[in-house]
């Protein structure tokens, strides 16, 4: 599959998942807002009903009080504010306690009708004056009446609970009453004016100039609202899981594609690297069949030298491929560990590589300053690690600059050894620096075609150092230098002696 098609499918799926998540989140947000609005509407309706019931309760209080006074005084205390005489009021009050009598047969029909109409008028006038007096008493006396008598907390709780339940709100609640200055006149147990709960309020006795406000809070409101839309949350979670799986699958696809490309390069490089020495050896063998060549000692020596060099080259390449099997051995069961002196191994490998550096006018500087250099390693594979790092440094040198390599060791604390390999070569780009230890990965060398390899060297080095219990890192400035840093634990004997 082409990379462009993979990217296209990835983009389409990412947009689809993103849009799906966006619409689900928007739906959840709208559902929460709708639930909040519905909850607020129900609570405010219950608050208004509670306030109305408290007003009715207060009106009933004054009505009962006035009726008691009427019974005690015979209605003398009421004043006719519509200019009706006191005698008329007394007569209206008296008539309120008698049944309406129907006219006798001897009475004139028109007179009887007028008498009935007058009696009804007097009753109406009485009721009107009575209500007016009650309203005046409420306006005059109610503000000075103690709050606990007007809005007792027990009564408020009873009315409020009933109205909330009738409006479908059955959550636990607390409430308080504030005065005109916002101070709480009283509050029920558990009410927290400073808590970050949603608070709902309504004015008490608004028709009597009330300055008190009834404030209600619901500690479990948020959990109640979210519990009503919790069925949406699993869909969001499943969608998010699918998105993560999809992204992980795409990453795996790209990794597999890259791995496939690197393996193809590896096979091509391996074919080329094996074909050249095999062809040379084959050609030398054919020449040895020639009688004239066999009779010439010089030619025989030359062909023997060619066969020997190409055999070494072929064996070296075979060893490179065999390193891959060791790389895949995660447990290192094929390794033979022993306590070896790292300084000695580095010194021996450097001596074999000096010739390559000096041939190009360069040199290898060695500073083996580590005092404790005994580490528990596989000597052969550690030698290969040092050889690979030096070989890479010499391979990736600048064409116009003599190679200068610096190899150094030093003690780190009491239980570690540090080895540094620094060169003045072409350097490594930042994007390549992150992947140079990946299997089959080869850094691009631009127009240079003289550098061959399988992409296994640094992967092998990384694996071996890890098996030895150490770490390896790389630093570089592209076009100037590169440096590889290995840190290894010292052998237990050296640690104890130190």
Task: Note the main attributes of this structure.
11 strands; 58% helix; alpha+beta; single chain; 498 residues; four-stranded antiparallel sheet; five-stranded mixed sheet
Describe the model.
Strand 8 (404-412) and strand 9 form a beta hairpin. The protein has helices at residues 3-73, 86-95, 109-141, 147-150, 153-166, 221-227, 232-288, 291-294, 297-327, 342-359, 379-395, 430-433, 457-467, 492-497, and strands spanning 174-178, 184-187, 199-203, 213-217, 337-341, 363-368, 374-378, 404-412, 416-423, 471-477, 481-489. Helix 1 packs across helix 5 (153-166), helix 2 crosses helix 3 (109-141) and helix 10 packs parallel to helix 11. With 498 residues, the protein is an alpha+beta fold. It is built from 14 helices and eleven strands. The strands form three sheets. A five-stranded mixed beta sheet has the order 6-8-9-11-10, covered by helices on one side. It has a four-stranded antiparallel beta sheet with strand order 2-1-4-3, covered by helices on one side. It is 58% helix and 14% strand.
């Amino acid at each position: 599959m082409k990379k462009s098609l993979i990217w296209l499918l990835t983009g389409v799926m990412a947009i689809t998942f993103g849009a799906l998540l966006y619409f689900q989140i928007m739906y959840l947000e709208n559902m929460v807002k709708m639930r909040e609005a519905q909850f607020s509407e129900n609570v405010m309706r219950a608050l208004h009903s509670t306030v109305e019931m408290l007003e009715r309760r207060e009106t009933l209080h004054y009505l009962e009080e006035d009726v008691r006074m009427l019974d005690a005084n015979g209605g003398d205390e009421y004043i006719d504010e519509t200019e009706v005489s006191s005698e008329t009021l007394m007569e209206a009050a008296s008539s309120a306690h008698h049944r309406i009598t129907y006219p006798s047969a001897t009475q004139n029909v028109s007179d009887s009708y007028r008498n009935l109409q007058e009696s009804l008028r007097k009753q109406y006038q009485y009721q009107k004056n009575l209500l007016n007096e009650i309203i005046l008493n409420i306006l005059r006396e109610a503000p000075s009446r103690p709050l606990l008598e007007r809005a007792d907390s027990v009564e408020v709780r009873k009315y409020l609970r009933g109205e909330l339940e009738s409006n479908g709100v059955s959550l636990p609640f607390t409430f308080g009453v504030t005065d005109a200055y916002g101070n709480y006149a009283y509050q029920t147990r558990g009410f927290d004016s400073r808590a970050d709960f949603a608070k709902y309020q309504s004015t008490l006795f608004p028709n009597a100039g009330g300055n008190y406000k009834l404030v209600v809070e619901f500690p479990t409101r948020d959990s109640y609202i979210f519990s009503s839309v919790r069925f949406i949350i699993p869909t969001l979670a499943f969608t998010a899981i699918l998105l993560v799986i999809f992204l992980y699958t795409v990453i795996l696809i790209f990794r597999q594609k890259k791995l496939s490309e690197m393996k193809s390069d590896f096979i091509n490089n391996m074919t080329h690297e094996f074909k050249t020495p095999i062809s040379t050896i084959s050609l030398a063998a054919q020449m040895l069949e020639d009688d004239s060549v066999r009779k010439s000692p010089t030619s025989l020596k030359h062909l023997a030298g060619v066969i020997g060099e190409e055999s070494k080259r072929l064996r070296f390449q075979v060893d490179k491929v065999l390193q891959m099997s060791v790389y895949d051995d995660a447990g290192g069961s094929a390794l033979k560990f022993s306590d070896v002196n790292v300084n000695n191994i580095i010194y021996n490998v450097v001596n074999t590589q000096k010739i390559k550096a000096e041939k190009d006018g360069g040199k290898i500087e060695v500073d083996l300053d580590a005092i404790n250099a005994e580490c528990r390693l596989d000597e052969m594979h550690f030698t290969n690690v040092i050889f690979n790092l030096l070989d890479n440094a010499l391979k990736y040198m600048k064409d116009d600059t003599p190679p200068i390599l610096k190899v150094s060791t030093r003690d780190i604390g009491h239980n570690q050894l540090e080895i540094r390999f620094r060169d003045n070569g072409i350097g490594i780009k930042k994007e390549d620096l992150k992947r140079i230890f990946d299997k089959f990965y080869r850094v691009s060398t631009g127009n240079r075609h003289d550098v061959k390899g399988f992409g296994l060297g640094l992967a092998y080095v990384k694996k071996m150092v890890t098996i030895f219990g150490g770490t390896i890192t790389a630093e570089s400035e592209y076009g100037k230098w590169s440096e590889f840093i290995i840190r290894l634990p010292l052998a237990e004997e050296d640690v104890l002696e130190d």
